[in-house]
Specification:
19% strand, three-stranded antiparallel β-sheet, binds 6-phosphogluconic acid, six-stranded parallel β-sheet, alpha/beta, Rossmann fold, 247 residues
């Protein structure tokens, strides 16, 4: 586990942008494509803005980038809470990714379980998976909520222990709504998994997640331990305040 402490969210976002570009170019030169699962929430916004900026936009061959999401709220794609809308506004509307390589989670459907099955089929087709196989994303971007959730794996939910499905939709009591999310075996199959964590409000939970007892039902971010991939925690000083960095 690689923990990188950045001065603030701007430097965290810049570091993540440089890494995104490096991994994209490495994947595209070795396999011809770069598969990435985007995080939702607010922290990644600056990363997406930077990737779309003049300084970085031209450093990636966007026509070879294939985009998925780690999770999605059960709202229409133009809703203010939509993870797709945030990424579309900040990045996807600014760079020439072929539309058929942008795989939005259709979480607004009434039958959200069927929508999760459909998204699972999309992933299986894109990665040409046989039954029982899991995708190996080149990069998975994740955030961490101040309750320790990641993607839409929330404390106390069965999704934390899902080992067969790639995608599940479940009711999240905390928000009294459904969510769609990639499952732990998919997150743990990533070649590169980056957590982006910023802000004082995350400090106490981050201390527990990284240096406390293993209790993934309480802190689902602990379930992310890639089997063979690289796990990087990009954290700003405010979020890292309580960490024992000598540990
Ligand atoms: C979501 C995200 C979620 C997010 C964390 C952190 O849909 O909300 O996928 O897992 O990464 O809640 O969110 P912030 O970056 O806004 O703190």
């Amino acid at each position: 586990m690689n923990i990188q402490i950045c001065q603030d969210v701007d430097s965290l976002s810049r570091q993540a942008t440089v890494e995104f570009v490096r991994l994209a170019n490495r994947a595209i030169s070795s396999t011809g494509r770069f598969t990435v699962a985007l995080a939702g929430g607010s922290t990644p916004r600056k990363l997406y803005d930077l990737l779309a900026s003049e300084a970085f936009r031209t450093q990636v061959i966007w026509s070879n980038v294939e985009v998925f999401w780690g999770d999605e709220r059960c709202v229409p794609p133009d809703h203010p809470d939509s993870n797709y809308r945030m990424a579309y506004e900040a990045l996807l509307s600014q760079v020439p990714i072929p539309p058929d390589l942008i795989h939005r989670m259709p979480a607004e459907r009434d039958d959200v379980a069927a929508a999760a099955d459909e998204y699972e089929r999309t992933i299986r087709e894109s990665f040409d998976l046989a039954d029982g196989e899991f995708p190996r994303f080149d990069l998975i971007l994740l955030g961490m909520g101040d309750d320790g959730h990641t993607a839409s794996l929330f404390p106390g939910t069965a999704a934390i222990h899902e080992q067969r499905r790639l995608v599940v939709a479940h009711y999240v009591e905390k928000f009294k709504t459904n969510r769609m999310t990639l499952t732990p075996p998919v997150l743990n199959g990533g070649h590169n998994v980056f957590f982006l964590v910023s802000g004082e409000s995350k400090a106490a939970t981050l201390k527990e997640v990284l240096q406390g007892e293993s209790q993934p039902d309480r802190y689902p971010s602990q379930v992310v331990r890639p089997e063979s991939g690289s796990l990087v925690w990009l954290i700003d000083r405010a979020a890292a305040r309580l960490l024992d960095l000598a540990a």
